[in-house]
Amino acid sequence: MVNSSVGRQAVPSFDYDLIVIGAGAGGIHASHCAAALGKKVAVVESSTLGGASVNAGSVANKLFHYASRYKVEFDQAKGLGWTFGELQFNWQRLLANKNAQIKRIDDLNRVRLARLGVDVIQGHGSFFDGHTLTVKNKTYSAERIIIATGARPFVPEIPGREHLSTSNDVFLLPKLPGSVVVIGGGYIAVELASTLAGFGVSTKIVHRRKTLLRRFDQGIQAEIESGLSARGVEIKSPVTVDSVIQCADHRLQVTLSSGELVLTDRVLCATGRVANTRGLGLENTAAGLNRLGAIKVTRDCQTDEDSIYAIGDVIDRVQLAPVAVAEASNLIAHLYQNKKIQLNYRYVATSVLSQPGVACVGLTESKARKLHKNIRVYESRFLASKHCLSGGDDRTFMKLVVDQASDKVIGIHMVGAEAGEIVQGMAVAMQIGITKAEMDEVMGLHSTVA
């Protein structure tokens, strides 16, 4: 008899069809989708499930944001007829409740993964080659591997950087500081400053540029700086931090480029986030990094190593949890269902959990003027009816950017209460190409910001 296998190339045998490194929003969703299609899947995670979004990002951040709003709400309630005794805030209770909620989400994720037959491998995963990972001295192989390790806070090289805390640390502080200096001017810095000021912490923002939220529309920049200042946040710009030293009383002395010395209990660094590729062992594969340190991928999220893919913050397209989830869905559909749909990153809505709130979708006015021949801009500023009695002076700001030739809405920007909830609805309309005339035809809901 002739051996039918003679001359045939052996088919590689793997432990799994798919291994996902990182159990954040994108990693967990990729695991769910692949397992639901009958694939044998494992997810590797060195910490709790949920990633930065749950543990130190949008979930934890929003819980703290909600808590920080109450002091202002109680103050404004007096004008609406309410009387309260002495207000007391318990930081330890908030921490304990936050930790319980994160544990609940972690437990829920583990149960869901178990039901789908996904193995959770606890530990740090490092590549041995394009198909193999090493975790705690054990090896695991897969036909395909997805990197979904997210990003971590960037800490600049300044004298005394060992005294700096990051945005991740805020949600773990055993004691609420009396004062804080926040380094940075992006959305994370604004959120931290707003939240801590809401808890009564003396808060300063130190920023190297003239304005906060530089990637946002100029109208938003002006409104948020005014809103933060009204809540007692001191903004120092454009200046940089030259050094941080610890004093005998354990307070920190911050030396600014202006020569000013600032004493504070904590210095929080919110100067951006960098891709989490440290210790992955990518040098053992063909996968490479771009000039910013993020993993290089094709439009289909494939790296230079054919068997390795990457999604979410680690590829630094748009660092938002919903984007990572969408990339996960698309990638699994592409790999296992032969579907190829290009994601539209143009109308991804963004919000800032600040007081007042900020949200936007589409192009800023300045970007629109560069990309479109002619545009029309509509702006509105008004005091919400609530503040007629509450004594609050937060003005709602709304801005519409329209392409003149097509009449299509290409940018919406808002500062005000529940801005994120409102702008998300606008993102849906913009995604399907709504025009200014079509928006005008819709009757507004009274009495709302509509």
- Assembly classification: single chain
Biggest sheet architecture: 7 strands, mixed
Percent range of helical residues:
25-40%
Distance between the termini: 81 Å
Mean pLDDT: 93
Tell me the CATH topology of the largest domain.
FAD/NAD(P)-binding domain
Number of extended strands: 22
Q: What would you call the structural class?
A: alpha/beta
Rg over CA atoms, rounded to whole Å, is 25 Å
User: What's the architecture of the largest domain in CATH terms?
Assistant: 3-Layer(bba) Sandwich
Which tags fit this structure?
12 helices, Enolase-like, domain 1, single chain, FAD/NAD(P)-binding domain, disordered N terminus, five-stranded parallel β-sheet, alpha/beta, 450 residues, seven-stranded mixed β-sheet
Please give a structural write-up.
The chain is an alpha/beta fold and about 450 residues long. The chain folds into three domains: about 200 residues, FAD/NAD(P)-binding domain, CATH 3.50.50; about 110 residues, FAD/NAD(P)-binding domain, CATH 3.50.50; about 90 residues, 2-Layer Sandwich (Enolase-like, domain 1), CATH 3.30.390.30. Helices cover about 30% and strands about 25% of the residues. The strands form five sheets. Strands 1, 2, 3, 4, 5, 6 and 17 form a seven-stranded mixed β-sheet that branches. The N and C termini lie far apart (about 80 Å).
